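Pair request: fold both.
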Amino acid sequence: MTTSIRRALDWGSLGPLRLRARSLADGIFAGMHRSAQRGGGVEFGGFREYTPGDDLRWLDRRSLLRHDRFMVRQFETETERPLRLVVDATASMGYRGTKALGAKFAWAALVAAALARIALANGDPVGLTFLGGAAGGGAAGGAVSLRAAGGREQFERVVATLEAVEAGGDAVVDAGVVDRALDGLVRTARRGTVFVMLSDLLDLPEGTERRLAALLGRGREVVVVQVLDPDEVEFTFDGAVRFRAMEGQFVVESDGPATRAVYLEALAAHRAGWNDVVTGRGGRLLTGRTDEDPIGAVRGVIEALR
């Protein structure tokens, strides 16, 4: 990990993402489900482009002659559960209070990488999609999604993609940020796919929870992890405080103690709304705090999927 990326993502004491993700995964490795198999399975699953690290036994040589590119034959088994990670990288995820181990996006990225390592070790393909986000290091363009793939190299691709993204983008101004991320998932998600979304759930367009819950069905599962900073959970600000939104143009001046009860009530109501929609359709809603060891969030997701 380069110094510039570490600084941009505000990793804090989380350490290099690759090392920490491996450590988390190895420390709790129990598998997300019963052993998954990929290869000569029970049903032919079509073709996709070859990616370095794929099993060479399933190369389709005729595709090279027909299309001038390597394609891989896919087979699906009853136990396969592709993992599609959806990580919120909008501007609000860049917040880090004084008690947090790292910014919300950095914390969520670490959890996502650990989950990817566990899934890939079980033989399941992993894909990565962002809500918002910007290319790191001042590069032009936004966050680039990573299509689902398996193999030993996919973990490195997931980590490299997470490290190359900065929290950025305004979901209040750009309401299409969710549509761009989820439309592709709706079209391509196979039966049995597991969706894990890591987000603070703040400032997202109205109806996002319903869009996400729509992914359920046909054996698919959805787990949402709400990632919050201790400041957002406890609201311990004292005296006169001036708040400026990280998304939108809102500025509020208030007295901390006088506002605390109203804020906490609104936060609880917001979470209850998400919970009603997501769990009401068979999904799960969990909470992660950035002052807590992310190993708890990884375990929570695994338990939710058993």
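--- second member of the pair ---
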Amino acid sequence: MKTVLVMGAGRVSAPCIDYLTRHGDCRVAVSDISDVNLAGVASRFPSAVVEREDVRGEAVARLLDKYAPNVVICLLPPELMPVVAKACLEKKVHMIQPSYLDAAFASLSPKVESSGLIFLTEFGLDPGIDHMAAARDIAAIHGQGGLVESFRSLCGALPAPEANDNPWGYKLTWAPSSLIGASKRSAKILAGGNEISWPDGETYEHVYMMNVPGVAVMEVYANADSTIYKEDYGIPEASSIYRGTLRYPGWCETICYMNALGFFETEKRDTRGLSFARFSARQAGSDGDPKDAVCKKFGLKPWSAFILKMEWMGFFDDRPIALNEASPREIVSSLFAERLAMSPEERDLIVLYGEITAKYPDGARRLHKSVLIDYGIPGKWTSIARTTGIPPAIAARFIMEGKIKTPGIHKPTSREIYEPVLRELASEGIELVESHTDI
């Protein structure tokens, strides 16, 4: 029997393991540093083998030697991906991971291909399902002789409308440190043939609104570097390319104010005896009342939405910070984890929206839309876990069955990958709704 080793037993692992136990016809082994996470896996999936392991140093090689997996699915933090990838290359094991492809991972490409291995990267929701939907639609347009004029892809992971019951319009379905880290991310888009860059979180200052039918009006801001998809998607003819994030209204304004307060910086300072109120006053450059200090810094009134959000979150509380030394980012993360948690009884919401404007040889212009709206299952798992965890499980199955067989490091933009995986996702209830309109 073939074996899949899942590294990481956190939030997205359960749907991944569930799919493998239902469809993989394989042994499933799971490793994690957390006993709590592993206990959860063991109770839900008694057929899975679990092992506690801190995958640093030689630990990955030991796991690969012990379980001799055919495929590794790495659900660990992005910084550990190169470590796992190098071990998989050395031990001749196929690998799948949902995080963005970085330089360290990409540098392994020649060796991966020459070894006959398959390493699939950016294989979750966003990135992942978005790549597959875009590649499929672009291939169809090109197949009819069409040219892509503009491309837009948006994604949001949010509380469902009925669970959107706090003034921030957000609840955590992933690590708060990752969410906050993204608040300083640079962005680049292609607009009218020109590249536009927004460094260090400036993208939140360039927000616009759009209606997501059947859900809500949402904000949109650019996410990371969109220009690389001219090559990745094979659309050199496109004059506009935009990849963005969806949030409920008010999010971008809040992030801009927090950025101006230095709330996302990473330099550690002594926080012994420091309260959240004193921290906020310090970040506003004052020793006085924290609310007054923040109001004065931005010219706001105490009834301003941002001030009320800060108060609700606890930034003006006299409660001491339970850390002896911390960065502003770590302090903010601690409050986010406490106040923005999603309960197991609540649903989250995924919106994935793709839009392509294309021109055809007969002069016709068409707007192609591809939309996924998916809700979590209360008491079972979130939508973000399902849409991130199931795609790599499907890919592992198809690698073992020989349906995906081209060696190398791949994003899921080839027909060999996206056609069978999107079909299988649809059978799991994760299906994009397609529409085409003449314009």
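Observation on the second member. The chain has 16 helices and 18 strands.
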